[in-house]
Amino acid sequence: MQFLRRWKIIARRLARQYSWADLRWSHITILCLIVAGALINLALPNGWTVWPFVAVFSMLTWLNEAAERNGQGIPPIQVYALVVMVLGFWFIGVFIMTRVNVFIQLLGIFGIACYTYHGYMKYKAHLQLIADRRHQGLCVHCGFPNDGSFTYCVNCGHEPDPELASQQRMTAIAQYGKTSDRARQVLTTESYANNASRKEKALLANSPRRRGRAGKR
């Protein structure tokens, strides 16, 4: 009894530490796949054939979780999901082309083309509106007058011209190296010894004796 009680305490402690420190969703998924495979194996006459699929999907799940955790490579489940989506859209398109009348298909294509053209024209009008507001000195978001004295628009709270602001930031970053030396000189204080030596030399240069000697020469 003490042996079983001790093992229960150890198992409970390990489960608690595992759930706190390194609980991975791939392990839970693989455990669910094993349970589902066992149920299919017991319920169906040829259910043992499900185990290769369980092994393959478990490996894909583990590789997907490792790729997401380490940030290296493309998660395979996302790749296969994209392939399945493409194949699904392809089958739907083929089904529509084989089952639907050609006239209805052309009508649908014409409707999609009109909708695409309408969206493109709205995008061009939006770009033209932004260009006009920028030329007139207005906020590109709400059209409120902007004199350049505020970083954000007082009406809508956004940057009046995000593209111009980005260009100014890039210019400031490029010119930072030119002004860094001057800023370093301003921020760096001169030592007392150098300051006293410089003042002493200036006083000696402006003394009357030195001026008289220079005049005699």
Give the topology.
Elements: H1 2-21, H2 25-43, H3 51-70, H4 76-99, H5 102-135, H6 162-174, H7 176-187, H8 192-205, H9 208-216
Please give the radius of gyration in angstroms.
38 Å
Gap between N and C termini:
115 Å
How many extended strands?
0
Helix content: over 70%
Anisotropy-based shape: flat
Strand content: under 5%
Major pleated sheet? none
Uncertain spans: none
Write a structural description.
Among the domains are: 15-99, no CATH class; 101-161. Helix content is 76%, strand content 0%. The chain has 9 helices and no strands. The chain has helices at residues 2-21, 25-43, 51-70, 76-99, 102-135, 162-174, 176-187, 192-205, 208-216. Helix 2 runs antiparallel to helix 3. The radius of gyration is 38 Å and the shape is flat.
In short:
It is built from 9 helices and no strands. With 217 residues, the chain is an all-alpha fold.
Keywords:
single chain, 217 residues, mainly alpha, 9 helices, 76% helix, flat
